[in-house]
Amino acid sequence: MQLTAEEKLMYAVMKAIHDSGIPVSFKGSMVLKACLAEVGYTEEIRHTVDIDANWISDDWPSMEQLTESLQKAVSRIGIRIVAYRPYGDGRSAGFEIRDEKSCKLLFTIDMDVNRPVSATKIYMIEGIQFRGVAPIQIIADKVFVVSTEKVFRRIKDVIDLYYLSKAFTFDKTMVLDVIARNGRVLGSFEGFLSREDELRHSYEKFRFSGAVNKPTFDEVYSSVKEFLREILSV
Fold first, then answer.
1. Distance (Å) of CA 167 to CA 36, 70, 90, 137, 139
2. What is d(CA 146, CA 203) in angstroms, rounded to the nearest whole number?
3. Mean pLDDT taken over the chain
4. Structure pTM?
5. Cα 202-204-206 angle, rounded to 5 deg
6. Which residues contact 216 (CB under 8 A, 6 or more apart)?
7. Are 60 and 191 in contact (CB under 8 A)?
8. Of 149-153, 154-158, 208-212, which gets the smallest average pLDDT?
């Protein structure tokens, strides 16, 4: 699995934040890539243009405090942190990551603040270490989305389950336990199971950047359906 220059920089930022000791763990596509790489998955997967993170603390930091903490963490790698969206009820904080000298926008960080704590673990990819959500949490989050009407807006979660199906064994009991502990109620999977044409349309519109191979919808759909076979009968 090859890393783009942008992904290497994103991982460097994640490592710097992890090494600083601030209460941040990561989630999203960058964690998925490391998760798959650790278990020997070698094929290229879809690229992303941002970092997703969780800030967990006993207090409610101001946006100024969040920005200052992040800036201090990445100060040695020539990065400037610019807050552009305050966090709120159901809304993550947004930060622009800019080159310190040119001020060029490199990518963004979406950070949830004090959301329910998820299981985490330490990941290692190409010598870079950081804390991210555990594999079972990644799978459970994506299964929940696929079980609801959100699946049509988040076709990337179906794609990610396709990748995960190649590297992990599905554990229905553990997935249901994580979903319950997160305070969620599993949907009926009605959209995923009975509106295949709409899913196909969403998939065809989804763009894969770079030289990443885009598998056919039929391959993705059948693989995910088989991966989730145990839970689709819930």
1. 7, 33, 32, 15, 12
2. 13
3. 93
4. 0.91
5. 70
6. none
7. no
8. 208-212
